[in-house]
Amino acid sequence: METSRFTLPFLLVATSFFLSLSAQMTGNFKCGKPRDSNTTCRSLVGYSPKNATTYGNIQTLFAVEKLRSILEANNLPLSTTGAQRVNPNQVVRIPIPCTCSNGTGVSTGVPVYTVKQGDTLFFIASEIFGGLVRFQRISEMNKIPDANDIDIGQRLWIPLPCSCDKVNGQVVVHYAHVVKPESSLGVIAAQFGTDNTTLAQLNGISGDAQLLAEFPLDVPLRACSSSVRNNSLDASSMLLPNGSYSITANDCIRCSCEASNNWTLSCEAAQLKPTTWPTCPPSQCQGAENLFLGNTTSTSCGPRSCTYAGYSNQTIFTTLSPDPCSGSGGSRPSGNYASTFSPSFSFMVVLIQCALFFVCLL
Ligand SMILES: *[C@@H]1O[C@H](CO)[C@@H](O)[C@H](O)[C@H]1NC(C)=O
Ligand SMILES: *[C@@H]1O[C@H](CO)[C@@H](O)[C@H](O)[C@H]1NC(C)=O
Ligand SMILES: *[C@@H]1O[C@H](CO)[C@@H](O)[C@H](O)[C@H]1NC(C)=O
Ligand SMILES: *[C@@H]1O[C@H](CO)[C@@H](O)[C@H](O)[C@H]1NC(C)=O
Ligand SMILES: *[C@@H]1O[C@H](CO)[C@@H](O)[C@H](O)[C@H]1NC(C)=O
Ligand SMILES: *[C@@H]1O[C@H](CO)[C@@H](O)[C@H](O)[C@H]1NC(C)=O
Ligand SMILES: *[C@@H]1O[C@H](CO)[C@@H](O)[C@H](O)[C@H]1NC(C)=O
Ligand SMILES: *[C@@H]1O[C@H](CO)[C@@H](O)[C@H](O)[C@H]1NC(C)=O
Ligand SMILES: *[C@@H]1O[C@H](CO)[C@@H](O)[C@H](O)[C@H]1NC(C)=O
Predict the structure, then answer these.
(1) 262 lines ligand 7 (CB under 6 A)
(2) What burial class does residue 164 get, using C-beta atoms within 10 Å of its C-beta: 0-12 exposed, 13-18 middle, 19+ buried?
(3) Residue 304 and residue 282 in one domain
(4) Where are the alpha helices (DSSP H) in the chain?
(5) Domain tally for the chain?
(6) d(Cα 354, Cα 166) in Å, to the nearest integer?
(7) Of 46, 136, 220, 346, whose CB has the highest number of CB atoms within 10 Å?
């Protein structure tokens, strides 16, 4: 018994060492950790066009239903039109639907690209889609018998890499970042507010020596915590990273995520014409009728706020923060408080260990 207690960890460490030595970036993202993933989710890719283009062209290329989703992901004003120019090498964040399948994540059936004269799979992957996907992957997923032989007019599914897995126990937004030449895990980590160890583990590599330029790297973006209920119609789309916003509840509510706001989702009335409702429901907080959504009042005991908690086809839910006057901060509000995420990086080290064990068990 004593020996087996020690043999297993040793084996695991040895295996992980061996794995990390043999690992190479594949351009595919892991997706579908048992019990720690959703099968589908929204993911992001960072697209950098090789030639000047427009937001409208990018929307078409990536088959994004609404231009607004691109504006939201890039913190661009709603007045931005599809004709707005995008310069070469400017990076545009594009939301894509993600599905975990067979251990990897791929964009759900989109985008679909129609082969034009002079195209090769390599050109489509590296130039048109900016290196977000490997040409071998397009070939494999479209079951093309000969990668050198594609026909003009042929329709190809471009399987963009994505993931829905938690990272270090946190629900995150996965972002496909195309690695620039001479970059390093440390530089990328600093740019996206993560750390080099997390990036290395997530991508199954051991360090900078295995970081390949022009390959997509899976970067976990921390999302703002929100009070949106899990049964709300927008439960899955309110997971927003720093520097993005989302218009929700039939266009009645605008929520945004800024790291400077303590990583807390901030929502208020959008002041737009609602889509399916004749008018927007009043956004007074349930339980404090003088408090509106997005308002924070100061009471003699401290601040009290009214936050957005999702919507149903009939109403907008709100959450009133605990009354600071009732007790020593430990008391919870009247029933409808639902904090979805509780960022706690203190468990990180333990979770990294767990993740390591997991990799080894596979
Ligand atoms: C799966 O999605 C639900 C709501 O859409 C969310 O509450 C849950 O945290 C997600 N789980 C993971 C592992 O992302
Ligand atoms: C699943 O992935 C493995 C290895 O990654 C591969 O050999 C197998 O063919 C894949 N199965 C399907 C159904 O794609
Ligand atoms: C960019 O423009 C050049 C010159 O017009 C052209 O040869 C090249 O194919 C274009 N690249 C893409 C990805 O469209
Ligand atoms: C992360 O950065 C630290 C300090 O620069 C370095 O010692 C460590 O080896 C790096 N880890 C990886 C996995 O690159
Ligand atoms: C939604 O949240 C409630 C309470 O927090 C929980 O009991 C329930 O299991 C959750 N449902 C889903 C589908 O996550
Ligand atoms: C959040 O995004 C803003 C720009 O929108 C950027 O200036 C800031 O550095 C980011 N903060 C973090 C922690 O990522
Ligand atoms: C920031 O948020 C955390 C929890 O998300 C909370 O514990 C902390 O008090 C907040 N800090 C400030 C300054 O509001
Ligand atoms: C509360 O919110 C309403 C509507 O968003 C706004 O008109 C009002 O000025 C806010 N009041 C305070 C005290 O912030
Ligand atoms: C709201 O949704 C419920 C079930 O999801 C449905 O029974 C009801 O008819 C819907 N109400 C309206 C006004 O659409």
Answers:
(1) yes
(2) buried
(3) yes
(4) 2-22, 55-61, 67-73, 121-123, 135-141, 185-192, 196-202, 348-361
(5) 2
(6) 13
(7) 220
Distance CA 25, CA 212 (A): 7
Let me know if residue 336 belongs to a domain.
no
**pTM across the whole model:** 0.82
Average pLDDT over residues 339-350: 31
Residue closest by Cα to atom 4 of ligand 3 = 51
160-212 pLDDT, tens digit per residue, is: 999 999 999 999 999 999 999 999 999 999 999 999 999 999 999 999 999 99
194: left (phi > 0), else alpha (psi -120 to 50), else beta? beta
* 16 against 240, higher pLDDT: 240
Using the mean position of ligand 2's atoms as its centre, give its distance from the Cα of residue 324 in Å: 55
Ligand nearest to the CA of 36: 1
Take atom 5 of ligand 6 and give the residue whose Cα is closest: 243
Distances (CA, A) of 171 to 212, 225, 307, 359: 26, 10, 20, 19
Single-letter code of the amino acid located at 30: K
CA neighbor of 91 nearest in space, from 30, 132, 119, 126: 132
314 lines ligand 9 (CB under 6 A): yes
Lowest mean pLDDT among 79-83, 303-307, 313-317, 347-351: 347-351
Going by their DSSP bridges, the two strands 302-311 and 316-320 should be labelled as antiparallel
In a domain, 316, yes or no: yes
Please give the residue range of the domain that contains residue 242. 235-326
247 and 202 in a single domain? The answer is no
If you measure from the C-alpha of residue 253 to the centroid of ligand 5, how many angstroms do you get, rounded to a whole number? Answer: 23
Q: Is 65 found in the same domain as 212?
A: yes
Same structural domain, 190 and 299? no
Q: How many residues in the chain? A: 362
196 and 103 inside one domain: yes
| 93 in any annotated domain | yes
Q: Which atom of ligand 6 is nearest to the CA of 243?
A: 5
Mean pLDDT of 61-75: 97
Tell me the two tokens of residue 352.
Answer: 């990294």
Both 127 and 240 in a single domain? no
Ligand 9 site-directed mutation target among 233, 313, 317, most atoms within 8 Å of CB:
313
Cα(341) to centroid of ligand 9, in Å?
28
- Spell out which residues line ligand 3, taking CB within 6 angstroms: 50-51, 127-128
